[in-house]
């Protein structure tokens, strides 16, 4: 039989929450991939990107602005360091996506089954999830 004599402190070992880290990277990479494809499509004016913008009354040069913002925001979120820049990128993605959903909604351009409103709101939700799941090294 063993007995413990005296006061001993047990060091608390901090473990990495691997499930949270996996969820963060899954959500973040899905968001990054989706917005990167969208941004490149807007910069190249590929597919229906021209119709999406002009049908709601925006000039065509807006695709250059939106595509550039999306790509720069994704680069800021994925690259290591720069926590303040990441905060701005997350907020920019949120405002960009909710603004897109509202613009399509106010212009009564819902798309099939509300796709033009639901998809940007889904991307905004992914941005919020990525922001909420981010590890301490990526916070302010």
General description of the model:
- The protein is mainly alpha-helical and 140 residues long.
- 66% of the residues lie in helices and 0% in strands.
- It contains five helices and no strands.
- It has helices at residues 18-44, 49-54, 62-78, 83-106, 115-133.
- It is elongated.
- The model has no long low-confidence stretch (mean pLDDT 90).
Structural class label: mainly alpha
Radius of gyration: 21 Å
How many DSSP-defined strands? 0
Which percent range fits the helix content? 55-70%
Query: Which residues sit in consecutive blocks of at least 5 with pLDDT less than 50?
Result: none
Q: What profile does the largest beta sheet have?
A: none
Contiguous helical run count: 5
N-C termini distance: 50 Å
| Strand percent estimate | under 5%
Mean of residue pLDDT values:
90
Helix-strand topology string = HHHHH
Shape: elongated
